[in-house]
Amino acid sequence: MPIWLQVVFCIVCTIQIPFAAWIVCKIIAFEKDLAALRERVKARENESAERLGWLRGVDAKIDLLTENVAQIMGFLKGILVRKD
Length: 84
Prior knowledge:
Blueprint: H1 3-83
């Protein structure tokens, strides 16, 4: 193997090995960030599910309150109609 080819091979290896190591480090960091992001998404989904359950409960209470108010208004209208 000619000397110039060995020199080129050494230069390429000198440049390529740290670059490959840098790429591996970046990939590992990216995977860590991605895992953290997945955890945040799961936490938000759980929080959203809890809030949705709470809102459905509030909606049911509002519906019950509306029905009760309608019954009271009907009762009061019946009393006012009898007095007239």
